[in-house]
Design brief:
single chain, alpha/beta, Rossmann fold, 7-stranded mixed beta sheet, binds 5-O-phosphono-beta-D-ribofuranosylamine
Length: about 200
């Protein structure tokens, strides 16, 4: 089975979209757990609503990065996913996890990478920068997670035209809508590719 572990730090709308695509048969996978670095976020409410186990690993629980990194790896090993799906997870993915799951951690970013990616480009910052740079197009990118922020191999992108007078919030909403379609679709085709090469 194509088990997924989701990593999230926010409202979890991409997480919900993946749940819905599985439920309606467009994505052949099973979500075995959610890992967050924050308590009381929308993603946890969604997990509870759908009976998906969740685990909060916040920095306050750990005396240093090493203990956080091994707790994160231990939880993943316990859930044994085929893929780890970062859906708005705001902590850097540690090297021990990248080594344990080579080419098996995906991320979604709300811009056309390599533009507007890297440290500091998250949430509304991305869309504000797109508008300030007078870009005619933006969109979203799905990529494999590597050691550097937003730098791993790109699997898919979807574009849209920027309206010159729109707000960053409005643009964020339009990009998010694209994300909700592109992420499940890309996970489905990547799982197929992965299963064909390992069979
Ligand atoms: C999305 O815009 C995603 O591209 C970025 O974080 C946001 C998460 O949104 N990495 P949500 O929590 O899925 O609603």
């Amino acid at each position: 089975m194509n088990e997924l572990v989701i990593f999230a730090s926010g409202s979890g709308s991409n997480f919900l979209s993946i749940i819905n695509h599985i439920a309606n048969g467009h994505l052949n996978a099973k979500i075995v757990g959610l890992i967050t670095n924050k308590a009381e976020i929308g993603a946890i409410e969604i997990a509870q609503q759908y009976g998906i186990p969740h685990c909060v690993l916040s920095s306050a629980q750990f005396t240093n990065n090493k203990t956080y990194e091994s707790a994160l790896l231990n939880q993943c090993v316990q859930w044994n996913p085929r893929l780890i799906i970062c859906a708005g997870y705001l902590r850097k993915i540690p090297t021990n996890l990248i080594l344990a799951y080579p080419n098996r951690i995906l991320n979604i970013h709300p811009s056309l990478l390599p533009k507007f990616g890297g440290h500091g480009f998250y949430g509304l910052h991305v869309h504000k920068s797109v508008l300030e740079s007078n870009e005619t197009h933006t969109g979203c990118t799905i990529h494999i997670v590597s050691a550097e922020y937003d730098k791993g191999p790109i699997l898919a992108q979807e574009r849209l035209a920027v309206h010159p007078s729109e707000s960053a919030e409005h643009l964020a909403k339009r990009v998010l809508k694209l994300e909700h379609q592109l992420y499940p679709k890309t996970i489905a085709s990547y799982l197929k590719q992965l299963n064909n090469t390992t069979e």
